[in-house]
Amino acid sequence: MADTEKPQEVREEHPTTSATEGTDLKKTLTIDTVHNDEAMKVLATYSGEETWDEKEEKRVQRTIDKRLLPILCATYGLQYYDKAMISQAALFGLRTDLQLTGNRYSMSSAIFYLGFIVGAYPAIWMAQKYPIEKVASGIVCLWGICLICTTACTNWQGLYAQRFMLGFLESGISPMFMLVVGQFYKKNEQALRMGAWYCCTGYVSIIAPLINYGLGHITGALSPWRYMYIVAGILTILWSSVIYFFMPPDPVRTKIFKSERERYIAVARLRVNNSGVRNTHFKKEQVWDLMTDLKFWIVFAMAFLMMIANGPVSTFAPIIISGFGYNTLNSLLLVMPAGFIIGTIELLAPYIAYKYPNMRSYLVVICEMGTVIAALLLWLLPRSAKGGLLFGVFILASFGGAYAVLMGMQIANTAGYTKRSLSSSILFIGYCLGRPPVLIVNLKAKLTRKLTGNFVGPLLFKPEDAPAYAPGFQAVVITSAITAGLAIVYRFVCVWENRKRDKAGTPEGFEHAYEDDLTDRKNPQFRYTL
User: Fold this and answer.
1) Calpha distance 46→268 (Å, rounded)
2) Alpha helices, H only, 150-199
C-alpha cells in the first residue's frame, strides 16, 4: 500500500451539556494508520487513568486466555487430527484401495506439504488484509469439505490431488496463530501460549487412535477408512462456525472486554514488545528487511532441519510400531502414550521458557538431543529390543518442544507487521520442506552422505528399508544435531546485536512502540530475546 494513502479518522465523542444548548460536543482525531499501528486508535481515544496495577493486568490476561486459547487449541488439535489421519487410515485399507504401492504412500504425505508451501503466503496475506477470524473460519470450513472429498478418491492420483489441496487450505492456520499470539501477549508470555496450542499435536494423538479404531470397524457400503474422513470433515465444518463467531481477532477490535479500560490495558501493555499490534498495509521495505536478516534465515534453517524427524512421527509411527510385531489394535493403542509424552514436552518446554527468561535457545538444544537419542535407538537397536524401540518412538518427537519454543522466539524477535506476517508464513515453508520424505541418505557411497530436497531425490523412508528404516533415522540424527548447533549460533548473534545497541548508547525503551511500524532492525530500542 502506498504511503500516500489517506490516514483513517477516529471519532471520539465526549458528551457535555451547555447551559444554553443541549448539544453534544464531538472531538475528532486523525490517526495515521498507514505508518502507525492500529493500536494508536485505542490509545488516542482513551481518556481515563493511564496507569494500572498488576491485578488489573492479570485480570485482562485471564480474560484473553479464557476466550482465545480454547479456540486456538481446539483448532490446531483438529488440524493435526485431520492431516495425520492418513497414518491410521493406512492400517484400514487405504493403501490397498488406492494402490499406494512403493513410494506412493510416502509421496502422499510429501505432497501435502507441497500444498502447504504454495498456500502459506496467500493465507497470511489475507489475514493481514482482512479480519483474521473470518479468514481462519473460511479456511477451516473449506478444508473440512476437502476432507470429505477424500472418500471420492479411487486411486493414488486422486489422493495426491486431495492431499495437495488439504495442505494448501491448512497452511494458513499455524502462521495466523503465531500472529494472533503476538497481537495479544507480551514477549515473556508468548512462548507458553505458543506451546499451549502446539502441544495439541501430541495430546490429540491420545484420542484419535481410539476414535479411528472404532470408525475403522464400521461395516457398510464404504471402506472403513472412508468413514474416518467423513466424520472428521463434518466435525471440522461445524467447528469453523465456532471460530467465526467466537474467535477474538486482536485487542483493538475484539468484543471480549467489559470496558474500554480493559481494552486500553490490553493494548497499552503490549508496548514492551516494540513490535506493534496490527497494521493492514503491506510495506515492501519490510520484505527486503526480512530477506536480508541473518537471524531469520538461521531460524528458517532450524525449522527445516528439525522437521526431518516428523515423517516417522506423523506418517509412519503406527506402521513402524506394527513392524515391531504388534497387531493393528495394539499399534494404534501404542501411539497413545507417545502422544501424551510429546504433548507434555511441547507444553513443558514453553513453560520453562516462560518461567526462566533467556533460556529459549538452550531449550531448543535440549529438546533436539531427545530426538537424537530416540533416532539412535530406532536405528541401532535390534528388532527384538521392543522396550527400547518403543521408548525411542515415544520420545522421537521431542523436537516438537523445540519447535514450540522456536515459534515463540521468532515472533518475539520480529517487529514490523508486514515483516512479522511474512516471516511467519516463510518459517512454515521451512517447516514443510523439512517434513519427510525430504532427504536421501546414499549409503552406497560410504564416505559421503548426499542430502537433497524433497522433490528432487529419492524418498527418505523407503519401503525397502522397512522395518528398521536405518537411512532415515541416520538422517534424523545428523539434522537434529545440526539444529542444536544452529540454536547456539542464533543465541550468539542475538547477544552480539543486543550488546552493540547497548554500546551505541540507546537503551531499551517503549515510548515509540506504536509509531512508524518499525522493524526490529530499524528500531534501536528493540532488544532480542534469547
Assistant:
1) 11
2) 156-170, 173-184, 187-198
CA distances from 395 to 21, 332, 378 (A): 74, 16, 11
Interatomic CA distance for residues 307 and 482, integer angstroms: 12
CA dist., res. 351 & res. 346, Å (int): 9
Read off the C-alpha cell for 260.
Answer: 474500554
Could you give the CA distance from residue 4 to residue 1 in angstroms, rounded to a whole number? 8
For the chain, the structural domain boundaries read 8-45, 54-255+277-503
Tell me how far apart the alpha carbons of residues 261 and 217 are, in angstroms, rounded to a whole number.
Answer: 55
Task: Yes or no: say if 156 and 498 are a contact pair by the CB < 8 Å rule.
Answer: no
What integer pLDDT is reported at residue 393 of this predicted model? 84
Which helix (H) or strand (E) is 401 found in, with range? helix 399-412
Confidence of residue 90 (pLDDT cuts 50, 70, 90): confident
CATH superfamily, domain at 54-255+277-503: MFS general substrate transporter like domains (1.20.1250.20)
**Residue with the three cell numbers 512502540:** 513
Partnered with residue 61 across adjacent β-strands are none
Residue 31 DSSP SS3:
strand
Whether this model's pTM surpasses 0.85: no
Handedness of CA 170, 161, 102, 332 (dihedral sign): positive
Tens of pLDDT, residues 459-518: 455 656 666 667 778 888 998 999 999 999 999 999 999 999 999 988 887 766 676 678
Distance separating alpha carbons of residues 367 and 370, to the nearest angstrom = 5
- Decide which of 12 and 141 is more confident: 141
Q: What is the DSSP letter of 24?
A: P
| Cis before 467 (ω within 30) | yes
CB-CB contact of 277 with 128 (8 Å): no
- Indicate the helix (H) or strand (E) that contains 97: helix 94-97
Cell (9 digits) for 37: 499501528
Measured CA to CA, the distance from residue 471 to residue 449 in angstroms comes to 10
SS (H, E, C) 426-447: HHHHHHHHCCCCCCCCCCCCCC
Sole residue written with cell 467489559: 258
What is the pLDDT confidence band of residue 449, given thresholds at 50, 70 and 90?
very low
Convert the pLDDT of each residue in 270-291 to its tens digit. 888 887 777 777 888 999 999 9
User: What is residue 28's DSSP assignment?
Assistant: E
